[in-house]
Amino acid sequence: MRMLVLESDQPHYWPGDTSDGKMVFDVIQRMEDTEPFSEELLAAMKRLWADNGVQECFGRSNEYQLNDSAK
């Protein structure tokens, strides 16, 4: 999700609610790899995944490095 938020740098790909994108990006930047996701973070990630802009960005994932297992 972090990579999708990073790659959504063009306005027509921005999530409808940019506060979720900012929160996910900020929290993931600070997290340890072994730290569990909070309920708030999971809810924000689910809302982002359902966003048309994020889906469009995922659809063009061949333009940037995204793990095959990202979906």
- Helix content, binned percent: 40-55%
Sheet having the most strands = none
Count of folded domains? 1
Helix and strand run: HHHH
What is the residue-mean pLDDT, rounded to a whole number? 72
H/I helix tally: 4
Low-confidence stretches: none
- Based on CA inertia axes, which overall geometry fits? globular
Strand content: under 5%
First-last Cα distance: 9 Å
Category from helices, strands and their pairing: mainly alpha
Using the CA coordinates, give the radius of gyration.
12 Å
What's the count of strands? 0
What are the defining features of this structure?
single chain, mainly alpha, globular
Provide a descriptive summary of the structure in words.
This is Guanine nucleotide-binding protein G(O) subunit alpha. InterPro entries: GproteinA_insert. It is a single chain. The protein is mainly α. The chain is 55% helix and 0% strand. The protein has helices at residues 2-7, 18-30, 39-50, 52-59. The radius of gyration is 12 Å and the shape is globular.
Summarize the SSE layout with pairings:
Layout: H1 2-7, H2 18-30, H3 39-50, H4 52-59
Helix pairs in contact: 2-3
Quick summary of this structure?
This is Guanine nucleotide-binding protein G(O) subunit alpha. The chain is mainly alpha-helical.
